[in-house]
Amino acid sequence: MDLLLWRHADAEDPPPGGADAERRLTQKGLKQAARVAAWLDARLPAAARVIVSPAARAQQTAAALSRSSATSDRLSPGAKPAEVLEAAGWPAAGDETVIIVGHQPTLGAAAALALTGKAAAWRLKKGAVWWLRSEDGGPALVVAVITPDLV
Fold it and tell me: What 3-state class would DSSP assign to 70?
């Protein structure tokens, strides 16, 4: 199984009294999402599943990939790392590819949990992707770590 943890791209600050979930991507964030999406699209199988936080900034990031996606409240800001891995079905045997589009610090902690068995305060930069692989449910390996500045 391949699991890609994609942090939403650069987003606006919330307006005074505004809801965090309604924050949208900045112009910089839209460009970051487009660059990373192009890199992913060239490498991902057509059958890859995309699961996205309901927050507007995550939805906009995922939309740059131009693939169908499912929204999951289990990926909302503040989600637990184990919930992210469960939503993805990690680690599953087989050749499935799942892209999770969500938030920091949850995604960093989920990467640590998948790779070491313990959640830890690992950091994913805005717009970054950590691509993990587990063959037949075995130990996790890092395939790639990409930031918008690298693509």
Answer: strand
